[in-house]
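Sequence, please.
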C-alpha cells in the first residue's frame, strides 16, 4: 500500500495524542501514511515527540523548528497534521498550505470565523486538501445513530436535545482553554457537540441563545486530560488561573428541516452532572450514550417497545463501517464495543489519518472539510453573538462575518481586522 509522507506540526499534548492514532493505523492492514517529520517552535516538545514516535513506529522522524525549513529539507513531505493550540490554527494551517502541503487541522478550524475564512482562502488559493480532525462523528456508535435516523427508525426527526453539565470550578486540561483570546472551553469542547447536532439532523438555519462566564477562577486538579497526554506539563500549570472566556452556553436551534434543537453546554455546573443526547421523531426516540465509550444506543418505539441490543441493527439496514473502522472496531456493523478509552481514541484518530492520506492520493474531498469545520464553528459562535444582539442569528450571518460583536475583540487581538 502506498504511504503518503506527512509531518506533525505542533508537538504538545494533542500532538502526542495524534501519534497514538498514527500508531493504530501503522498496526492495521490499511496503513497509507508515513510519519517522516515533526515540527514545533518548542524544540524539546518536538524532540520528545520524535523519541515517542521512534518507540511506537520503529523509526524516528526528523525534527524541525519551522515549516519553511522542514519543507526545504524534505520536499517529499505531502501533508501536515496541525494539532497546535486553537489560537494558532489561523497561522499554522495557512503556513503549511502555502508551503505546498495538504493539511489536516485539529478542531475547531480556527478561533473565530475570520480565522476560519483565512484558512479556507489559503486552501482555495493553493488547491490543497483541507481536512478538519473532528472525531466524534467517526465513533461507530454515532455512525449507527445517523443510519437509524436516515433509515427512518424514529420517523421524521422533530427534536434533538444535547446536554452537558459539570466541571464546577476545575481547570480543564490547560489554562488557555479558559481564555477568551486563546480559544475558550465552550468553543474547544462545544464544537464537538455542534458537529454532532448537524451530523445527526442536518444544517442549522437559526440559533438563539447566550453564553456566560460563571467561574471567574479555575483551580488545578490532578487530571492529565483525556488519556493522560498532558501529564508531562503538569508542573508548569499554576494552581489557580483567572478565566476570561465563557464557560457555559445555552441555545435554541432551528434546523433547516424544521426540527428543533435544545443545546446546553455548561462547564461550570456544580452538584449532579448531566450528560445526555436524545432525538425524538414522529415514530419513536433515540437515546445516545455519548461518545467514545462503546455503550449501546437505545431505541424507543411507540407501544412501549425498547431496543438496546443487537436487534437495533434491524432498524438500520444502511449501516456499514468503512474497512479501516471495521477492522479496528471488530466488524462492519458494530453496535457496541469495549476498549480502554486511549485505544478507542486512537482507533478513531486512525480513521481520520487514513482518510486524509486517501484524499491526498486520490484528490477526493474529506468528510469534514473546511466548509463543515467552519459551519461547526459558526454554530458555537451563533449562541455568543445571539446573546450580544438579543435576537436569533443565522449561521450564514456568522460565516459572512456580518455579525461579530463577540468575536471582534479576538480578531483585533489576532490582527485579523
Amino acid at each position: 500500500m502506498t504511504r503518503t509522507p506527512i509531518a506533525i506540526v505542533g508537538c504538545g499534548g494533542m500532538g502526542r495524542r495524534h501519534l497514538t492514532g498514527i500508531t493504530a493505523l501503522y498496526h492495521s492492514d490499511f496503513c497509507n501514511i508515513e510519519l517522516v517529520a515533526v515540527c514545533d517552535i518548542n524544540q524539546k516538545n518536538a524532540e520528545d515527540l520524535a523519541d515517542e514516535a521512534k518507540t511506537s513506529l520503529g523509526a524516528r522522524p526528523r525534527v524541525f523548528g519551522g515549516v519553511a525549513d522542514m519543507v526545504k529539507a524534505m520536499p517529499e513531505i505531502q501533508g501536515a497534521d496541525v494539532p497546535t493550540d486553537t489560537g494558532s490554527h489561523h497561522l499554522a494551517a495557512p503556513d503549511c498550505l502555502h508551503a505546498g502541503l495538504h493539511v489536516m487541522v485539529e478542531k475547531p478550524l480556527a478561533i473565530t470565523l475570520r480565522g476560519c475564512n483565512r484558512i479556507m482562502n489559503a486552501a482555495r488559493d493553493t488547491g490543497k486538501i483541507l481536512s478538519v480532525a473532528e472525531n466524534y462523528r467517526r465513533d461507530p456508535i454515532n455512525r449507527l445513530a445517523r443510519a437509524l435516523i436516515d433509515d427512518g427508525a424514529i420517523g421524521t426527526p422533530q427534536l434533538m436535545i444535547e446536554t452537558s453539565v459539570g466541571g464546577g470550578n476545575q481547570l480543564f486540561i490547560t489554562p488557555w482553554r479558559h481564555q477568551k483570546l486563546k480559544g475558550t472551553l465552550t468553543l474547544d469542547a462545544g464544537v464537538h457537540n455542534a458537529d454532532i447536532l448537524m451530523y445527526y439532523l442536518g444544517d442549522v438555519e437559526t440559533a438563539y441563545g447566550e453564553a456566560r462566564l460563571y467561574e471567574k477562577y479555575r483551580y488545578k486538579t490532578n487530571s492529565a486530560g483525556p488519556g493522560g497526554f498532558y501529564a508531562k506539563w503538569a508542573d508548569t500549570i499554576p494552581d489557580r488561573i483567572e478565566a476570561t472566556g465563557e464557560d457555559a452556553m445555552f441555545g435554541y436551534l432551528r434546523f433547516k428541516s424544521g426540527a428543533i434543537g435544545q443545546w446546553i453546554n455548561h462547564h461550570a455546573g456544580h452538584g449532579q452532572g448531566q450528560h445526555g443526547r436524545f432525538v425524538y421523531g414522529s415514530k419513536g426516540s433515540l437515546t445516545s450514550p455519548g461518545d467514545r465509550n462503546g455503550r449501546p444506543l437505545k431505541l424507543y418505539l411507540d407501544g412501549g417497545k425498547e431496543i438496546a441490543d443487537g436487534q437495533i441493527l434491524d432498524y438500520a439496514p444502511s449501516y456499514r463501517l468503512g474497512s479501516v473502522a471495521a477492522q479496528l472496531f471488530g466488524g462492519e456493523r458494530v453496535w457496541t464495543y469495549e476498549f480502554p478509552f486511549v485505544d478507542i481514541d486512537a482507533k478513531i484518530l486512525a480513521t481520520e489519518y487514513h482518510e486524509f492520506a486517501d484524499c491526498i492520493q486520490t484528490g477526493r474531498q474529506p468528510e469534514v472539510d473546511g466548509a463543515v469545520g467552519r459551519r461547526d464553528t459558526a454554530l458555537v459562535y451563533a449562541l455568543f453573538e445571539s446573546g450580544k444582539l438579543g435576537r436569533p442569528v443565522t449561521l450564514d450571518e456568522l460565516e459572512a462575518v456580518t455579525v461579530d460583536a463577540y468575536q471582534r475583540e479576538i480578531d483585533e487581538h489576532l490582527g485579523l481586522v
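The longest strand covers residues 157-167.
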